[in-house]
Write a structure and sequence with these properties.
16 strands; binds beta-L-fucopyranose
Length: 452
Amino acid sequence: MNRQLYMILLLFVIGISARAQDAPVPSEIQLKWQKLETTAFIHFTVNTFTGKEWGDGTESPEIFNPVNFDAREMIKVLKETGFKMAIITAKHHDGFCLWPTAYTDHSVKSSPWRNGKGDMVKEIEQACREYGIQFGFYLSPWDQNHPSYGTPAYNAFYKNQLRELLTNYGEIAEVWFDGAKDKKAIDMEYDFAGYWDLVRELQPHAVMFSDVGPDVRWVGNEKGIAGETMWSTIDVKPENAPGKMSPEYLNVGDPNGKLWIPAETDVSIRPGWFYHQEEDDRVRSAQNLVDLYYTSVGRNSVLLLNIPPNKQGVFADQDVANLYEYRSILDETFRKNMAKADADQSLTDGALESYITLHADRPFEVRLKEKVSFDRIALQENIAEGQKCEEALVEYWNGNAWTILSELTTIGYKRLLRVPLTTSDKIRITVKRSKSPVQLAELGLYKASARE
Ligand code: FUL
């Protein structure tokens, strides 16, 4: 080979491997967050007492009096039903603060609750510590009560509140930034870059949510449905401030996106985000909640399920009953991985770091020791090294021939497939298209609970 050709080839090879290395991967905090799988939202403010979904800031703190408020009881329910984090609305768009902030009197300190001496954010935080789940907060930038809102001075006020929450409540796992803004606030831009710097500085282990990240993005709808194809990568341009990105794009992500910003699926157990008695008969059933698990966690996303406390300050009975039933169904379905013991150990050890490498169009056969009957398949990629699978095929041996069970696109952290009840002792997985060889970390075969 002549020298010039050799140099060209060498540069080409270096170019390819550099590109592969450049593929986006999760940060440590994003990876930890993704493994939480199911997290909970708690929407609570004056709206619970006025019956509204969006307050307008004129509500009197006098109406806020959840006489039986019990953070421990609620967090216990969340813990027992599998939620790994709770995020409380410290302040919603009405501006009422659930903690005694030093920067406005429009807070619990002006309410009859605990005679104005209470701190609801603290009580939730402490309960999370007691039950061993993570804690996060939502601090709405839209504040219809504060006089500075709509002027450039508002950003300093908002950052003061953010600093209080970031310094007085221990380790924060997630900070939730909503993009909603008053149409009349034309002389003010939210200083998201400044807010995010503050979180990084004071809570380096917290992930930050907004429509477009920086750590976690919106799934593009409030129905609990992530795209069947779901990339954890997107591109965000300067003009894509929170609230200005296409929901359709966010719902699917971007195989060529340069930023790792996985999708969070936020959805409420009730029609509204806040508790309204008239919606007591419209609580999502256990089966519906299980469906949400498949369309969020099962599609490479994290579920953020909202359970709003009622006027008493506790979860309503129906919500609690449905949560326990949902968890018991999931536990029954995923109790026993029938691929275990038989498949390659690395595929059933529950660790993403041990994986097999699948190249396009080279089928990988899993021989089971005996025939098993299953109707759910779980696949996981070792996303620590990025997301690769674009298209794959799962087949089973029917005794005479390979038969298609599922044709799928992305896998990512987790892909759950509901397939017809199948009995076989051989499964075959073929990657058809991928960004680079797929690191398949886990394979699960399950038989769904009859209650699904
Ligand atoms: C939205 C808000 O306007 C809703 O009230 C709710 O808090 C939801 C989670 O985010 O943007």
